[in-house]
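Protein modeling request. Please complete all fields; requests missing the sequence field cannot be processed.
Requester role: graduate student
Desired output: 3D structure, token encoding
Chains: 1
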Amino acid sequence: FSTILLPLLISCSAGGDPSVLQTDSSEPGHSDQTSSGTDTGGNIPEPSNVAVETEWVEASGNQIFVQYYSPTHCTKDAPCPAVLLAPSKQNAGVDEFSCCGKKLAAALDATVITYNPPGRGVDGEQSTGEEDFGGRDGQDMLKDVANSLRKRLFVDESNFGVVSLGNGVADASGALARFHATSLSFVGYYIDIEGPTNRCFMTQSPF
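Delivered output (207 residues):
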């Protein structure tokens, strides 16, 4: 799982350039793979068996723009695991993970969900509400998005996880700390990538 997840998402945090994880193939003994031998994602073709859907989810009085990537074979009779991605900094999740959402869904054979936290997004994809820098509003949104998508017939809610990138740790860990015993009890695992890479983002606002 991690050998697929980590390279693809870290490439997103580098601006969608998977080459940051690749060694120089011109050097003897080097190849375009990580040290574990796993393809970094740059050479994975765009899958054709993954559907991309968008919708609005009502969360604490706000409208949150959600996008999910789901393998086409995921159905009511054969539901798939699900992974909810929490974006970093002030990024819109739909934009941040556009570089790898379909590839990740195909590689993990799972529905991959992301969303634009309150106040983030552009044009017709901007979620309502105000940016609160990983505060309680953002945590509430993550909780509501997860609960909305876990009820989809093609999602196996017994295999539902949350993954955060960078400063998304504030939304994800805060939501799980507050709600894991109650409305997020179905979340089976949580993975953070990078952690809070900018102390100013975590301790003050505005910039």
